[in-house]
Structures are given as C-alpha cells and as structure tokens.
C-alpha cells in the first residue's frame, strides 16, 4: 500500500480512516504513535503484526478528554482528579482497573487494567475527537528499536505497511510518557515507567509519596505497561554507556582496537572526541532536556548501515528529574552495559 502523509488540512480524512479500522501514525509531544481504533480487535491485532510486537504487551489508549475514560472505568483512585487536572493533556499515562469487557483483551494484554493518556498535541486531539473513538498508539516503529520522533522516522520503518502518517515535525520531548499505576484505589500511586512528568512533580500535586517500580521485566513476563522490558529501544549497532570521566579512555580503546565508534553526546563532550571517532551525533546543548529530545534520533542516525559503525558510545546523565527517563531508555538500548576501563 502507499503510505500517505497527512497535513493539517487532511485531519478529517485521517480520522475517517482510523474509525474505519485503518492504521495511521500520529504525533504527540513525546514520540509518534501508531494509531488504530481501540474498539476493533482485528484492527489492533494489525498494530502488533506491523510492528512485530509481542501480543502480551499492553497498549496505551489515547483519549481526547477525561470524560472518555469514564466510559471504561468506574472506580478511580482518590488522587485521580488532582493528577488529571494538573497533568492532562501531557506526557503522563494513567493505569486504571477497567469495567469488564469494555475494551478488547488484545488492547489490555489480557489484564484487568488499561492505560490511558491524553496527549498534548492539537492535531492528534482533533483527530481523536473527529474519529469519535479512543485510539491505541504504541510507538510507530519496528518493535524494540528506537522510538520515532519525526514523521520521517515513521516513514522509514513503516512505509507501505500503514495507511498514513499525520505530519507535525519533530516531537517536543522525545521520550515516552511517564506511566503511573492508579489501578488500586487504596494503594500508593506507583511509577512503572519514568518520563517527563517526574515523581517529585506528582508528589507536589497530591501531597503524598509516590512509589517507583524498579523491576525489569524479562522476555517471558507480561508487563503491566509498555516499555518495561529489560532490553528495548535498541539499534542494531551495539551501544555502550560512557561515564563522563571515561570518555578519553573509551575513545582511545576503540582507536587502539580499530573499532569504528560513533558518539552521541552533548556539545561539551562531542567537541572533545570528534577527531578520534568515526561519527558524532551532537545534542542541541548540554542540558538533559536536549539529551532526552535527541537520544532516539541519535540512535537511529548512527545506526545507518552506510556509516558502518561497530559501536555507539552514548553520554550518561544524572538520574534525577528528566534524567531518570533519559537513563531508563538509554540503559535498555545498551542492554544495561557501560564501557568499563
């Protein structure tokens, strides 16, 4: 099939295709999602086959309002209203226990819970409203590979496999949403996947502690939310994380071993190693915000076969605030492996 690229004048056409059971990728502030009508099981199954994704992995249901969520959930955590008021639309996914048989099991991964998000993107919110149905929206890429942060990334992975892509430039944040488990109304809210909405921000809003799940889901386990697998977001080229104090040693080691190494780093680091490495992807500035926005694009860019790289070195950041989300994705892309002296 020919994959169409929809502009802002063609949103009605995109919404009509989605409602009818076709697959259309949509932009969000985090990454591009692979949209499908969440109420059509056979359509949702196509999402898994197009991505090459295991069906035990639950999908996030994208809505245009909190009122839509109430069609599927009737027992909310007491902190839900505060959280929704402060963080929706935005990069926060909420998990609730749903009413029986309200969503297809292929959406929930066979669980009694489902994940919901209201993305902060005007085009996508309009398309959800025009379609009149909630949309599943896993990252619009080949499963396990770096998530797409531009329409070109989506086209690279899925051209000819989906009906269309809604164009909206590069995403603003660049890493997937925070996932917060609110499925037990009597339990402490728990972050299952870190993102741009931090533990500290949620705690400030609700005035009580938020737990963080540190469990890394193995391949034979069913995760409660997307992105919880031990290894994920991985390019074909091997990735190693490099601590700030180890850059000169890592680069010299690769040079001595005649290893073609690429580097993904801030301008401060990139300028130090540029002459001794085969390729460099440089973040826009030295901030963790720039790193989070650029990580997936860097992994994709340096994984191109034409570069012929043997290895990609990537800069680490402190695991605080947005750094938690950045390092969560980077550790999985690297299979948890650092360069060791």
TrEMBL record:
Record keyword Glycoprotein present: no
Matching InterPro entries: DHBP_synth_RibB-like_a/b_dom, Sua5-like_dom, Sua5/YwlC_C, Sua5_C, T(6)A37_SUA5, TC-AMP_synthase_SUA5
Enzyme kind, highest EC tier: transferase
GO terms under biological process: regulation of translational fidelity; tRNA processing
SUPFAM superfamilies: YrdC/RibB
Binding positions (L-threonine): 30, 62, 117, 177
Transmembrane annotation, as ranges: none
Domain of life: Bacteria
Substrates-to-products reaction catalysed: L-threonine + hydrogencarbonate + ATP = L-threonylcarbamoyladenylate + diphosphate + H2O
The keyword Zinc is annotated on this UniProt entry: no
Start and end residues of each YrdC-like domain: 8-197
Cross-referenced PROSITE patterns: YRDC
Gene Ontology molecular function terms on file: ATP binding; double-stranded RNA binding; L-threonylcarbamoyladenylate synthase; tRNA binding
Keywords for the protein's UniProt record, in alphabetical order: ATP-binding, Cytoplasm, Nucleotide-binding, Nucleotidyltransferase, Transferase, tRNA processing
EC number(s) stated in the UniProt entry for this protein: 2.7.7.87
Subcellular location: Cytoplasm
Sites where the protein binds ATP: 53, 57, 113, 139, 147, 193, 233
One annotated Gene Ontology cellular component of this protein: cytoplasm
Family membership: Belongs to the SUA5 family.
Cited function: Required for the formation of a threonylcarbamoyl group on adenosine at position 37 (t(6)A37) in tRNAs that read codons beginning with adenine.
Protein's UniProt name: Threonylcarbamoyl-AMP synthase
Organism, as annotated: Enterococcus lactis
């Amino acid at each position: 099939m020919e994959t169409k690229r929809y502009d802002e004048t063609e949103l009605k056409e995109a919404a009509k295709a989605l409602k009818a059971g076709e697959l259309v990728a949509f932009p969000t502030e985090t990454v591009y999602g692979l949209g499908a009508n969440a109420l059509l099981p056979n359509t949702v199954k196509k999402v898994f086959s197009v991505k090459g994704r295991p069906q035990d992995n639950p999908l996030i249901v994208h809505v245009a309002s909190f009122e839509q969520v109430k069609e599927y959930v009737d027992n909310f955590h007491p902190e839900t209203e505060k959280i929704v008021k402060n963080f929706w639309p935005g990069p926060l996914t909420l998990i609730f226990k749903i009413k029986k048989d309200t969503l297809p099991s292929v959406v929930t991964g066979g669980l009694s819970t489902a994940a919901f998000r209201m993305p902060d993107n005007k085009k996508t919110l309009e398309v959800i409203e025009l379609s009149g149905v909630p949309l599943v929206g896993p990252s619009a890429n080949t499963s396990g590979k770096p998530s797409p942060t531009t329409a070109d990334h989506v086209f690279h992975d899925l051209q000819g496999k989906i009906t269309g892509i809604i164009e909206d430039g590069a995403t603003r944040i660049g890493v997937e949403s925070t996932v917060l488990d609110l499925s037990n109304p009597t339990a402490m809210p728990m972050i299952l996947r870190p993102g741009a909405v931090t533990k500290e921000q949620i705690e400030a809003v609700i005035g009580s502690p938020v737990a963080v799940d540190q469990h890394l889901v193995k391949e034979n386990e069913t995760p409660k939310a997307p992105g919880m697998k031990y290894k994920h977001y991985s390019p074909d080229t091997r990735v190693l994380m490099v601590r700030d104090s180890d850059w000169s040693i890592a680069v010299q080691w690769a040079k001595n071993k005649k290893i073609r190494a690429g580097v993904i780093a801030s301008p401060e680091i990139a300028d130090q190693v540029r002459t001794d490495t085969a390729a460099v992807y440089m973040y826009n500035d030295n901030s963790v915000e720039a790193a989070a926005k650029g990580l997936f694009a860097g992994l994709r860019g340096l994984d191109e076969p034409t570069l012929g790289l043997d290895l990609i070195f990537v800069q680490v950041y402190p695991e605080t605030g947005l750094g938690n989300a950045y390092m969560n994705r980077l550790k999985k892309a690297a299979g948890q492996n650092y360069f060791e002296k």
